[in-house]
Fold these 2 entries.
Entry 1:
Amino acid sequence: DIQMTQSPASLSASLGETVTIECRASEDIYNGLAWYQQKPGKSPQLLIYNANSLHTGVPSRFSGSGSGTQYSLKINSLQSEDVASYFCQQYYDYPWTFGGGTKLELK
Amino acid sequence: EVQLVESGGGLVQPGRSLKLSCAASGFTFSDYAMAWVRQAPKKGLEWVATIIYDGSSTYYRDSVKGRFTISRDNAKSTLYLQMDSLRSEDTATYYCARHPLGASFDYWGQGVMVTVSS
């Protein structure tokens, strides 16, 4: 199985700040990577697919990048509504696996 | 608007069975593969099972193979998860998700809680 390792596990940032979350795959996943946002008490929502494509309706302050085994999610100009947990997921190979998550809080 | 609404969760004793349902609307259900993803309390996300658009192929994570069965009724736009021989480690919120094969889980339901406890 492909292991997905996210860092950091938790993060505290101020409004307006730029935040970056990293995700590393145990082997090359050829950009088969998605990022999800899960707000407290809610279901996950797709943010980014194919490593760098924005899902419908997602604000442009979110962006994804990376290749091979290393990927990142960047949030520009952090807003209060961005407080959430973020998960990466690979869909290059079965079984489909998620990273452990990053909990983002406001400082 | 894509909508996925799960039902059927609850408290069940270890070794017993439970069947979850997911009613889909807002898209052509029979065109898409569908999946179940779960999340244990305060834990991360874990893919459980996927069924392709016509039900002819299914995929399971190892820990549920032989115990869980994913199925679908395209006439009713409904996805199911039959869970047998339940264990305490199956306790989680179960989400129904649209899962185009070779792609991400692009829409999710609100989730349904399953608690396995005596």
Note: Chain A has a mean pLDDT of 97.
Entry 2:
Amino acid sequence: DVKVTQSSRYLVKRTGEKVFLECVQDMDHENMFWYRQDPGLGLRLIYFSYDVKMKEKGDIPEGYSVSREKKERFSLILESASTNQTSMYLCASSSRTSGSYADTQYFGPGTRLTVL
Amino acid sequence: AQKVTQAQTEISVVEKEDVTLDCVYETRDTTYYLFWYKQPPSGELVFLIRRNSFDEQNEISGRYSWNFQKSTSSFNFTITASQVVDSAVYFCALSDPYSGGGADGLTFGKGTHLIIQP
């Protein structure tokens, strides 16, 4: 079975804190993604990675950075958390099959982050 | 730019009714993929279906069916004989594999909240 796990389901942090959200997948997938989900806005892509140490900005990268040191792990970093980063964060992964670029993305359970 | 529109914000039906969730998309490319995901109250997005732009056959999986019409850029999802467990937010998404290098993300619609009343 496909498995994507996220380090926390719920997280409460204070403004200005550095926040790490961790995502691990066990499917040997090349691609990994971070989205945030907000009411009325749907899901928006923050960053993605198609290989170890590679990263690409998504639609809303401002205020975030990422790290991918190992294939199975993709971290989202909020350098200095702000209240407008209160949101649900979803991690996903997909394989990169030759000849088929848009393989299915499988999602983790999400982390609901509150920044006070 | 790509766009996915799910015009129905919320639908409420009584159990056993059939219900159709609409999805309309915009893309300039001829090669693309469409997806449906289900998000139950637990929060995790559950993959339901993936369809490429060259396959216009309708798909049926149990009580679920999908109608892909390229002429109207629509990929609608029907649940037959709905059940309370079908209550969730459903997202339609579009991937454009040739819009750039690497692995592109999905463009999601804003979702339809489906409520099945007992």
Note: The interface with chain A takes residues 32-33, 35, 37, 42-47, 50, 52, 91, 95-98, 102-106, 108-111 of chain B (CB under 8 Å).
